Amino acid sequence: MAQLSVVTLGLILLTACLVAMITRRLRLPYSVGLVVAGLALAALPLRFEAPLSRDLIFTVFLPPLVFEAALQLKWRPFARELPATALLAFVGVTIAAGVVAAGLHFALGWSWLGAGLFGVLIAATDPVAVIAAFKEMKVEPRLSLLVESESLLNDGAAAVGFGVLLAFAEGSGGSPAWIPASLLWTVAGGVLAGAAVAGAVLLIAGRTEDHLVEITLTTIAAYGSFLLAERFHASGVLASLTAGLLVGNLGWRRAISEGGRVHVPAFWEYTAFLANSVIFILIGAHEAHQPGSFFSWGAAAAILLVLLGRAVAVYPLCAILGLTPLRILASDQHVLFWGGLRGALALALALAVPSSVPEHAEIVVFAFAVVAFSIFVQGLTMPWLIRRRSSSSEAPGGASD
């Protein structure tokens, strides 16, 4: 696994502190400032080495970010919106991936395998990017829950689709009947792994009132659930999500001490700040070294296809939900569409595509192009869209949108 040197890590953290101070004063999205800082560091003659690999993203950054987000979720609102978020996450990812894959195959002449791999890895919204963006904005609770929950859940669908296509790319694909079984295990196995690890951790935590021990146990829950699920080819994100939900809902009422209820959330807020700081600066540094095809018509076509796929996934599914009590306002649908940010998760999967796939190089470059568009264009305009939504909701008749 690629590693960060101590000097590089220190430089990243110092830069993150300065960026946090500047962006909050200028009222700019923190994640955008971090990516710009990464671009600047890469341009300086400092030999700034910033390794970015699938293992680094999945093993180091993703578990604490997902766990910290789930720690803040309340079970009742999450369960109430689960049918809507599951529909958007699983069915939506399938639709979006299909639109992107078909577009790349027919418009750019990609093979079905390469187009399918790119379509799947880019279809899922990234929990790292989405949660980082929405934490900085004053978003209505239900809308925030919908967007963040979908980004946490749709990783499972993307991981299964990517794994199936990767197996075919490596010549180890099974029969078509294997696909639904794999999807079922990815979801169920992730939930089981998260529940098992969180249950064991809460059982031990209930025997101590030392907040340092409790923090350590929750760290085991975050990483242990993720790694256990991945070890058995289930969804690590769903495992960390389940563990965070259990610790954040059952733990506060029973196992975690009164002192721990103050120190544990503070620790995880700081951990999320560190992880987001490092990962977005690394993304910026790698964006600086992308080849000329990063600005090609092919990359522009990929961006347009990703937006089209997201629109086709969000609006028709929300129309179906409009017939139920889980109806989503039109203004909220626009936020769901435009707030479907891509980030480190897409890059991690793109870097995992084997070189035997004919479009391997294009997949990596186009993934970086989509992520750059997502962070700079969508990330910078999201605060305006949120403010516009809020003002329209407060206006007379706005609630009937």
Short summary:
78% of the residues lie in helices and 0% in strands.
Number of domains: 1
Mean pLDDT: 86
What is the makeup of the main sheet?
none
The total strand number stands at: 0
Structural class: mainly alpha
Residue fraction in strands: under 5%
Low-confidence stretches: 396-401
Q: What is the name of the CATH architecture?
A: Up-down Bundle
Distance between the termini: 49 Å
Query: Secondary-structure element sequence?
Result: HHHHHHHHHHHHHHH
Specify the overall morphology: globular
User: What is the third-level CATH name, the topology?
Assistant: Na+/H+ antiporter like fold
**Total number of helices:** 15
The CATH class is identified as Mainly Alpha
Q: Please give the radius of gyration in angstroms.
A: 20 Å
**Helix amount, in percent?**
over 70%
